[in-house]
Write a structure and sequence with these properties.
There is one protein chain. The protein is of the alpha+beta class. The protein has helices at residues 56-64, 122-127, 129-132, 136-158, 199-207, 245-263, 278-285, 302-305, 311-318, 336-348, 383-392, 408-425, 471-474, 503-512, 517-531, 545-553, 583-588, 595-606, and strands spanning 18-31, 34-41, 44-50, 70-79, 94-105, 162-163, 181-183, 191-193, 212-220, 232-241, 275-277, 299-300, 322-328, 355-359, 373-374, 400-406, 436-440, 445-448, 453-456, 483-488, 491-498, 538-543. The strands form five sheets. Strands 6-9-10-22-21-20-17-11 form an eight-stranded mixed β-sheet, with helices on both faces. The chain binds aspartic acid.
């Protein structure tokens, strides 16, 4: 080894020892006569002091180094003089007095500071990701990810799960998203697809008798990348045979409880995890991924406004819609422009407007006068009528009431957006709480208005409620499925389901989805055939590893916990992927480019490299 100790490991008990340390120059300070270098390696930082009169050669070297030079230092560990200790640093009670120094490698001036967490654009960070990863925050996230994955492997192993790798070159099947395709050289015109998830493989493993499977699996989905999506991401893929929904939920609850204790001890994790049915979640929060760290629960106000003069409401009710709302505690203080911003947000979410009321004073909402209420609809309602609406939502004087009118899909969407924004504006969500919950009983199908057909809410292998099977032919939209999610702080962490294991039920579900017998044979023949050889009842789930790590790291964006992520346009600014290949490579895989591709390549050759984009 080129070193005897790691920088971050040195402590007061090493005082007097002669050590060799090596790493990067984190910072260098010249104190007229005395030189200091903060030396960094993966374990942390130690201060090295150079005294020209005692070690002139070492001091001369220190004089010449710059940030991020790689150096090796030989010297003695000494206690820092009283008053110069740094309690913020684990090594802050000591320093290394350099006797000899050696430059192992020089460094260009980095394009951004490693020592300071300056605001650096994403493309820059990704282009120099190897430098970005040197920064403390990213190094910490990588370490956390390692611990999470190691914990999961040990946890699953201790419970008898087998980790099995499944292929990445697969048959393309309709699983929801668009596939990444890989052309075949030996089968001209044929393609593999990268897995959107190992869904079919894990079900086939159940038929194969592996009754407890898991895999830390990479998945690929060619989607337009919104916010926290990545074209490739990692799942803890799980499948179990001879289980019911409850067994899977219990396993996942134990996993996340234990994982929280292991890597998230500073978080409060309410337990047991609440369970909400999809219908209940939509009714109370307008969302199937509610953030339970704050209230702002929705209430149905339809019956209270049915007889009023306000036609915006009464018309919606005549059309079968509902009036729903919630109360913001203390929301009487929201200024006019705050209310306007919320109204704008409601419009963006599809509402024609936002109906609100603010109540001044304190105490119960009775005996209200016109002076006590501020509302754009006070012409249509008496102060007491508005007060009664707010009271129905649990409000008091001093609060604000927000209402939306329309079909449930619309009011849910609008009120969910408002809930989240208000919680953010008013800091209602405790950042140190992880509020896990399960959402169950998802609908089996949803109507795809664009495609004019039913599509699977989870995926097409999900088992319907036995009792709802008769609805397959008559009212698929009313069918419940054994699909479930685990949600935390307003985000979906995992989805899963009990699967169909009977060939006949699977065929019937395909039919409802508009997949005819021939298409089923071509695309899913292997699954259907496997089901005829004694497929056991089975089910599974697939928590997102990236999302899980981001949660424990306190990061919003999963790219902060992925070593080498892609940009929002699925490009890698460092390597330049995706990039054109040679005509020979194209010919090998029997691919000819179309006009659009040729033009794009010409443009790229003339200027902008592929994957170049604005800093996000
Ligand atoms: N394959 C599913 C997904 O990726 C998860 C599951 O049903 O186990 O969402």
């Amino acid at each position: 080894m080129l070193k005897t100790h790691r920088c971050g490991d040195l402590r007061a008990e090493h005082a007097g020892e002669r050590v060799t340390v090596a790493g990067w120059v984190h910072r260098r300070r010249d104190h007229g006569g005395l030189l200091f270098i903060d030396l960094r390696d993966s374990s942390g930082i130690v201060q090295v002091v150079f005294r020209p009169q005692d070690a002139p050669q070492a001091a001369a070297i220190a004089e010449g180094v710059r940030s991020e030079y790689v150096v090796r230092i030989h010297g003695e560990v000494a206690l820092r003089r009283p008053g110069t200790e740094n309690p913020e640093m684990p090594t802050g009670s000591i320093e290394v007095t350099a006797a000899e120094a050696e430059i192992l490698n020089a460094s260009e001036t980095p394009p951004f500071s490693i020592a300071e967490e300056t605001n650096t654009g994403e493309v820059m960070r990704l282009k120099y990701r190897y430098l970005d990863l040197r920064r403390e925050r990213m190094a910490r996230n990588l370490r956390l990810r390692h611990r999470v994955v190691k914990f999961i492997r040990d946890f699953m192993d201790a419970r008898g799960f087998l980790e099995v790798e499944t292929p990445t070159l697969n048959l393309a099947t309709p699983e929801g998203a668009r596939d990444y395709l890989v052309p075949s050289r030996v089968h001209p015109g044929a393609f593999y697809a990268l897995p959107q998830s190992p869904q079919q493989w894990k079900q086939l493993l159940m038929v194969a008798g592996v009754d407890r499977y898991f895999q830390i699996a990479r998945c690929y989905r060619d989607e337009d990348l919104r916010g926290d999506r990545q074209p490739e991401f990692t799942q803890l893929d799980v499948e179990m045979a001879f289980v019911e929904e409850e067994d899977i939920l219990a396993l996942i609850e134990e996993l996340y409880t234990d994982l929280s204790a292991e890597v998230g001890a500073h978080f409060t994790v309410p337990s047991p995890f609440p369970r909400l049915t999809f219908a209940e979640s939509m009714e109370r929060f307008g969302s199937d991924k509610p953030d339970l760290r704050f209230g702002l629960e929705l209430h149905d106000l339809t019956s209270l406004v049915r007889e009023t003069e306000f036609q915006v409401f009464t018309r919606v009710i005549e059309d079968g819609g509902r009036i729903r709302g919630f109360v913001v505690s203390g929301g009487a203080d929201i200024p006019r422009r705050g209310v306007d911003a919320l109204t704008e947000l409601a419009r963006e979410a599809g509402a024609s407007g936002l109906v609100w009321a603010q109540f001044s004073g304190e105490g119960p909402l009775d005996g209200l006068t016109a002076d006590d209420v501020r509302s754009p609809v006070s012409r249509f309602f008496t102060p007491d009528q508005l007060g009664a609406l707010a009271a129905e939502c649990g409000g008091t004087r001093g609060d604000a009431l927000l209402m939306a009118a329309g079909p449930d899909a619309l009011t849910s969407k609008v009120l969910d957006v408002l809930r989240r924004r208000i919680a953010e504006d008013r800091n209602l969500a405790d950042p140190d709480t992880l509020a896990f919950l399960f959402v169950t009983e998802f609908p089996m199908f949803e109507w795809d208005a664009e495609g004019q057909r039913w599509s699977a809410v989870h995926h097409l292998f999900t088992a319907p409620y036995e009792a709802d099977l008769p609805l397959l032919e008559t009212n698929p939209g009313a069918m419940r499925s054994h699909a479930y999610d685990i949600v935390c702080n307003g985000q979906e962490i995992a989805s899963g389901s009990i699967r169909i294991h009977s060939r006949d039920t699977q065929m019937a579900v395909f039919r409802t989805l508009g997949i005819g017998a021939e298409e089923a044979r071509v695309k899913f023949g292997h699954m259907l055939e496997a089901f005829t050889y004694g497929a056991p009842p089975h089910g599974g789930i697939a928590p997102g590893i990236d999302r899980t790590v981001a949660l424990f790291a306190g990061e919003r964006d999963i790219r902060e916990v992925i070593a080498f992520p892609k940009t929002k346009s699925a490009a890698d600014p460092m390597t330049g992927a995706p990039a054109p290949v040679s005509p020979q490579q194209l010919a090998d895989v029997h691919i000819a480019l179309d006009e659009e591709a040729r033009l794009a390549l010409e443009e790229a050759a003339a200027g902008a490299p592929v994957g170049d984009e604005e800093d996000a």
